[in-house]
Amino acid sequence: MEQVRLKEVGNEAAALRAAEVLRAGGVVLYPTDTLYGLGADALSDEAVRKIYSIKGREEEKPIHAIVSGLDMAARYAEISDDVRLLAERLPQGQVTYIVRKKPECKTGILNGIGTLGFRIPNNELCALMTQAVGKPVTATSANRSGKLPERSIGKILAQLGGNVEGIDLVVDAGELPERRPSTVVDLSGIEPVIVREGAVSASEIWNALRDEQ
Question: Model-level pTM?
């Protein structure tokens, strides 16, 4: 397992190295806007299986991704006016949008599911990494399924135990401040549904949608 310290190498070098690992089908443990995440090529069946294995996660539970912007998300999913509105008005990196995927997209996190969950990071490392990879990267929290996420690399690796052998690169940004997870909004149906209230309050979302009506 390769490890790099973000303060020593900087965002650009860390992002480019992470992109190399991801393009080769590897797994990266990296800091996001909220927690440390496990990153893999979100469209690779094999890479996504590694994420499920590391987390001990049931495969019927979906995994979300980060994208460089709405243009990238639109390659794989239907982006409605409501999604564009919320992405413009709400803080980036703090809201995960669930949208209906395009029927022809059937690999990786889109295998056997009708939706894509994504967020647009407000984090230089994540933004540079997704741009360099050129496709969505998984952003599921770096914890064993059913366990609370830890905020430091040492505690994360200890919690994952022997499963850390599946991680190829660790980008260590030190202990992350305590933050709420992203708010998850399902916009794949007729009406928006707030699946999880997190960093952005439900009232902010409803207010943004009402203001446009």
Answer: 0.92
